[in-house]
Design goal:
606 residues; alpha+beta; Ribosomal Protein S5, domain 2; Rossmann fold; five-stranded mixed β-sheet; 22 strands; elongated; HSP90_C; Heat_shock_protein_90_CS
Length: 606
């Protein structure tokens, strides 16, 4: 038997188009061909299960072999095979109407190229991206079928002849082109197989070794799995990572098909490096780890696997953005994650609190970026006070309601962004019976703003943004031991001693045991600068503005009464001011040197 003919297409340029435009990454040819072989093998298994094939199935597997000397790559299967007529039907007749126009439309859009093969059924022809000639030797499972060989040199011409093959199945033989000889290196092939074929549902053999896990745990029922199974699979996915905190097993078949496992890693504050750790599969074939449109952005901090047959192998960015199934998957995953966290919180709050430092950034990020997630998470997001205790939002509001409601009937939540640096302010607040929160993560400047928007009649103030009396303002007024003339004189002394136009000086009657000089940055300015540093959430111009501070001189402190009586008022005032700077780690360089010298001078004066 011998037949010659032309591949039925609507353009003579099909192979240059395939080679130049269809895939931005040529290594995908192996994924396509191995996936086809797996499909043929699974069809064989299916035919046997329904009684359409009654013979011996044998050991179903796909084999990949490299022959550097012959310069060939062979993908073999013992699946359903093809007759000569089926080769003509499935290989030769390519429905590629308007191919040139279509490719011209997408040639400058790298993200769309990968979609073309999937849309037009050209998976097999990706072989010509690396091969100058391709042979198919195949034998159908049908009784009495004869083996056939198809041969094509990359033009539109082909030959079909009889072939020698005892067993059913197909060999695809790629005669590798000179510009693609990198794919004759076994390590290169192994790397590609490990990337795309690691969890294919049929055993894939390379160099005498099965290189895949055909039954990954996401294909099994949660009831059949142990905690150790989940941990071992995580180690298989991420060999160098710390063990996960916990996980979610996804399994839904309506209104879309989706399976998978999402793991919660230990995030701490460094979440940028965590991205692109979720792997997207379609029927156990790896597609991509860039899952932004399948998974909400904040969930990209998770690790794991999502598998959905509703997402084709050759996806483009525009497909993911527009596809209704993808949007449903996105919503479903968000709900499942929120439900899982809520369940852990309700059933085992102790474990939830123990893991809070590792997942807090993730939960807060989710609340900031997704309103539906916020509605669920507001009941389990935790606020930690400086004494190490954890509270839900409602628990914390109830705790501080009586003592931290100001004269405008606003609840004031006090926080520190650095308990060590702001220790004096924290201590001053606690001495008044106030409770102080720790909000010191990379995302908290944004989280604080969100809480003020969401919580009624509630404001948040950093403990060092005002003097203690102004943090939670009441109708109570303090009397000053200084008269107006003395207060004005004291203000002038400090203004001259400080000599800094970015420092606004005021004299106020604080408690006698409060600090003599208090330096604060207004809450608005501090918050905008914090947000700007955290990632542009504030006003960009704030990053260019100089730091502005309020300097409050305690009129009722004995030191300031002494300043008014001192011969060297300026020297003593500067010393008190520098001590305030020093308490906030704001004194350095020449100013610190001057302070030390002045301290010795004052200590040695009689």
């Amino acid at each position: 038997m011998e037949e010659r003919g032309n591949i039925s297409i609507h353009t003579e340029n099909i192979f240059p188009i395939i080679k130049k435009f269809l895939y931005s990454d040529h290594e995908i040819f192996l994924r396509e061909l191995v996936s086809n072989a797996v499909d043929a093998t699974q069809k064989m298994k299916r035919l046997s299960s329904i009684g359409e094939f009654t013979g011996d199935l044998g050991e179903l597997k796909v084999k990949v072999a490299v022959d550097k000397e012959a310069k060939t790559i062979t993908i073999s299967d013992n699946g359903i095979g093809m007759t000569a007529e089926e080769i003509k039907k499935y290989i030769n007749q390519i429905a590629f109407s308007g191919a040139t126009e279509f490719v011209e439309r997408f040639k400058d859009t790298a993200g769309e190229k990968d979609q073309i093969i999937g849309q037009f059924g050209l998976g097999f022809y990706s072989a010509f991206m690396v091969a100058s000639r391709v042979e198919i030797i195949t034998k159908s499972f049908r009784e009495g079928a004869e083996a056939a060989r198809w041969d094509c040199d990359g033009s539109t011409e082909f030959t079909i002849t009889s072939a020698e093959r005892e067993e059913r199945g197909t060999d695809i033989i790629l005669h590798v082109a000179e510009d693609s000889e990198e794919f004759l290196e076994p390590m290169r092939i192994r790397t590609i197989l490990d990337k795309y074929c690691k969890f294919l549902p049929v055993a894939v053999e390379f160099e005498g070794e099965v290189i895949n896990n055909p039954n990954p745990i996401w294909t099994k029922q949660p009831a059949d799995l142990t905690e150790e199974d989940y941990k071992e699979f995580y180690k298989e996915l991420y060999p160098m990572a710390e063990p996960p905190l916990f996980w979610i097993h996804l399994n839904v078949d309506y209104p879309f098909n989706l399976t998978g496992i999402l793991y919660f890693p230990k995030l701490k504050n460094d979440f940028e490096v965590q991205r692109n750790k979720i792997q997207l599969y379609s029927r156990q074939v790896f597609i991509t780890d860039e899952v932004k449109d399948v998974v909400p952005e904040f969930l990209m901090l998770l690790h794991g696997v999502i598998d959905s047959p509703d997402i084709p192998l050759n996806v483009s960015r525009s497909f993911l953005q527009a596809d209704s199934s993808v949007k449903k998957i996105n919503t479903y995953i968000t709900k499942k994650v929120a439900d899982k966290l809520s369940d852990i919180f309700k059933k085992d709050r102790e474990t939830f609190e123990k893991n809070w430092d590792d997942i807090s950034v993730f939960v807060k990020y989710g609340m900031l970026s997704d309103d539906k997630f916020y509605e669920k998470a507001k009941d389990f997001v935790l606020l930690q006070s400086t004494d190490g205790k954890y509270y839900t939002i409602e628990e914390y509001k109830a705790l501080v309601q009586a003592n931290q409601t100001n004269k405008s009937e606003q609840l004031v939540l006090l926080y520190t962004s650095d308990a060590e640096k702001q220790h004096a302010f924290v201590e001053a607040a606690q001495s008044r019976g106030y409770n102080v929160l720790k909000l010191d993560s990379v995302i908290d400047s944004h989280f604080i703003g969100m809480l003020e928007q969401k919580l009624e009649k509630t404001t948040l103030k950093r403990v060092d943004s005002e003097t203690i009396d102004k943090l939670v303002e009441t109708d109570e007024t303090k009397e000053s031991v200084l008269n107006d003339t003395e207060k004005e004189e004291l203000k002038t002394v400090y203004e001259q001693a400080i000599n800094n136009k970015n420092m606004t000086v005021e004299v106020a009657p604080l408690a006698p045991d409060d600090a003599p000089v208090v330096i604060t940055m207004p809450e608005f300015m501090r918050r905008m600068k914090d947000m700007n540093r955290a990632g542009g959430g504030g006003m960009m111009f704030m990053g260019e503005m100089p730091d502005m501070y309020n300097v409050t001189i305690n009129a009722n402190h004995a030191l300031n009464q002494r300043v008014l009586k001192a011969e060297e008022k300026d020297k003593l005032a500067r010393q008190a001011f520098d001590l305030a700077l020093l308490s906030q780690n704001m004194l350095s360089g020449a100013a610190l040197t001057s302070f030390v010298k002045r301290s010795f001078d004052l200590m040695t004066q009689e």
